[in-house]
């Protein structure tokens, strides 16, 4: 917190700086002597002296020995002169740019004024461990200060990659060499990097239908020809995928929890998928973002743990366990691909922020991540059960489909209801639902709304269900 003298000093500095920039104090003009200005403003002379020193350090004034302090003729910045509004030419996007601009990234554009009630797939902001995170940030800031003037390593900080490897071994039974882990800005960047490196324009790629919208988009903007493959209670139907396009170059799957229906691949389909990749020398992008939150049955091992031929790229994220705004994910890459992945990260954005990486590594090193996930799992289970019970009791025109994992569920709608109109009606009641149709790459096979429960506190379950029922009933 600033002391009163520091506050006065900043106020004097800001006032004089603004007067210089606007010309009230012209170039070459002499500033009042510090004693005189201090008497005029009713502050200590030292306050004025420090403000003058700061102005001189930043290039706004120059002192002349025995003469005083004068406004500099060449200022470090200037207030720009008013300009005519620009006349923009029509946007001339490239063919690839047009494809990118038209690619869907989310189910619906998120309205900043809309709350998070029923927002699918998002964690609860009220459960973020802010005090522990702040303590970890304070601990790493000083040791990291010397590295802030350089770019972070494009593969990610070694200390974080070591912590990720230890965490995966303990929680997912997945043995990973830190040298094969690449830190990314969330799962999305991991998928996009893989798609850029492994696909040429026009290459066919299998995607779950319905499936992960942003992941599908990452393949599209890389030029892939998407092959929608039906996804059911057992995840992607591999036999159907081979019948559709056996020579696909890549498959994007979430074998532990398919978005948004929640299907999980049994061992037979997993082995069939790995066998296809081996025979075709193809790639599998495994999205494992919701693996920490499973509500029925035992946790499922990653597909990558069965991969003996190096065809799986495993992608994970901390967006669900901590916060999406951190923008930290990772990919476990087969050793021959690591140099290309690191080079692509260098060309893309020069690496993920070192301060956030270091804070996360310290959070994990201190043993704070696993207890936090356990607390979230317990609380999310309560919220899921409360919302399910409230919907089943209250909502008359929809049937909840409780997925065995993840942070959302699907409310199946009566065939007579207009899905898009239902989503709009919900949003007018501050319910951030998404239409199920947006998750299909091909024709939708049923109507529904994707609804999240993680950010809906248990005491609000009844009220949320009543709003949901009112929204759907208003369509009749």
Structural class, please? Answer: alpha/beta
Give the helix tally. 15
| Portion in beta strands | 5-15%
Major sheet description:
8 strands, mixed
Query: Quaternary status of these chains?
Result: single chain
Fraction of helical residues: 40-55%
Which spans have pLDDT < 50 for at least 5 consecutive residues? none
Please, could you describe this protein's structure?
The mean pLDDT is 89. The chain folds into three domains: 4-71, Winged helix-like DNA-binding domain superfamily/Winged helix DNA-binding domain (Arc Repressor Mutant, subunit A, Orthogonal Bundle), CATH 1.10.10.10; 130-367, Aspartate Aminotransferase, domain 2, CATH 3.40.640.10; 371-473, Aspartate Aminotransferase, domain 1. A hairpin with a 2-residue loop joins strand 5 (225-232) and strand 6 (235-236). It has an eight-stranded mixed beta sheet, with helices on both faces. The protein has helices at residues 4-21, 34-41, 45-57, 95-102, 130-144, 158-171, 186-198, 213-221, 238-244, 267-280, 338-349, 354-365, 369-394, 419-427, 461-473; strands at residues 61-64, 68-71, 181-184, 204-209, 225-232, 235-236, 250-253, 283-287, 312-317, 329-332, 398-401, 408-413, 434-435, 448-452. With 476 residues, the chain is α/β, with parallel strands linked by helices. The protein contains 15 helices and 14 strands.
């Amino acid at each position: 917190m600033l002391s009163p003298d520091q506050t006065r000093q900043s106020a004097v500095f800001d006032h004089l700086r603004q007067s210089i920039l606007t010309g009230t104090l012209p170039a070459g003009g002499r500033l009042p002597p510090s004693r005189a200005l201090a008497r005029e403003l009713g502050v200590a002379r030292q306050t004025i002296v420090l403000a003058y020193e700061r102005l001189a350090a930043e290039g706004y004034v120059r002192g002349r020995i025995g003469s005083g302090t004068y406004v500099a003729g060449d200022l470090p910045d200037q207030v720009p002169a008013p300009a005519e509004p620009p006349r923009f030419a029509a946007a001339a996007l490239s063919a690839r740019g047009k494809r990118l601009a038209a690619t869907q990234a989310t189910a619906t554009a998120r309205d900043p004024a809309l709350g998070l009630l029923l927002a699918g797939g998002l964690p609860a902001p009220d459960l973020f461990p802010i005090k522990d995170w702040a303590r970890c940030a304070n601990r790493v800031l000083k040791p990291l200060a010397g590295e802030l003037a350089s770019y972070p390593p494009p593969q990610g900080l070694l200390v974080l990659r070591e912590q990720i490897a230890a965490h995966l071994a303990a929680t997912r039974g997945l043995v990973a060499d830190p040298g094969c882990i690449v830190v990314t800005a969330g799962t999305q960047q991991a998928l996009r990097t893989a798609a850029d490196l492994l696909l040429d324009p026009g290459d066919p790629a299998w995607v779950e239908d319905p499936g992960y919208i942003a992941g599908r988009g990452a393949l599209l903007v890389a030029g892939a020809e998407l092959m929608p493959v039906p996804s059911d209670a057992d995840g992607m139907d591999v036999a159907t995928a081979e019948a559709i396009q056996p020579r696909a170059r890549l498959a994007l799957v979430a074998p532990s929890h398919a978005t948004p229906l929640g299907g999980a691949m049994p061992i037979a389909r997993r082995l069939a998928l790995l066998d296809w990749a081996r025979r075709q020398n193809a790639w599998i992008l495994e999205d494992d973002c919701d693996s920490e939150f499973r509500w029925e049955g035992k946790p499922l091992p990653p597909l990558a743990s069965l991969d003996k031929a190096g065809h799986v790229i495993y992608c994970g994220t901390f967006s669900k366990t901590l916060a999406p705004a951190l923008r930290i994910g990772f990919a476990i890459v087969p050793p021959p691909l690591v140099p290309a992945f690191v080079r692509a990260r260098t060309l893309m954005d020069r690496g993920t922020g070192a301060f956030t990486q270091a804070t996360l590594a310290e959070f994990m090193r201190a043993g704070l991540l696993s207890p936090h996930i356990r607390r979230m799992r317990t609380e999310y289970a309560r919220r899921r059960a409360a919302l399910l019970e409230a919907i089943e009791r209250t909502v008359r025109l929809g049937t909840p489909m409780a997925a065995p994992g993840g942070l959302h569920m699907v409310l199946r709608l009566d065939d007579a209801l207009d899905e898009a109109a239902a989503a709009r009606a919900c949003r007018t009641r501050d319910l951030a639902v998404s239409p199920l149709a947006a998750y299909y790459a091909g024709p939708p096979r049923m109507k529904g709304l994707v609804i999240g429960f993680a950010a809906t506190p248990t005491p609000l379950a009844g009220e949320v269900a009543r709003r949901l029922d009112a929204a759907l009933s208003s369509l009749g």
